[in-house]
Amino acid sequence: QVQLVESGGGLVQPGGSLRLSCAASGNRLRINAMGWYRQAPGKTREPVATIFSGGNTNYADSVKGRFTISRDNAKNMMYLQMNSLKPEDTAVYYCNVFSGGVVYWGQGTQVTVSS
Q1: pLDDT at position 114, please?
Q2: What's the CA gap between 20 and 95, in Å, rounded?
Q3: Pseudo-torsion of CA 34, 107, 38, 18, nearest 10°?
Q4: Which pLDDT tens digit goes with each residue over 66-80?
């Protein structure tokens, strides 16, 4: 099985920055793709950014130019650098991994953007 642990969330003012981290662990870990999703209260969970094994990335239109996804394959780590944060970015952010034909989710980390 794959275990995912997110960290780096917290309270930040509008225009501020945060960096989220996702640590993946498991036996014979082979990660095909990783991504970040978020879910605000009363809203559906939506994809924010994804990164594939070949290095290609994809971003939601709402975060393009502000967020950057990256990964360290050797350390099985994934990051989301969030700049110019807006109140509408407030949500629980989840790490998502596709590995061995199975989708895994972390427990989420809260990001709150408020004055």
Answers
A1: 97
A2: 9
A3: -80
A4: 999 999 988 889 999
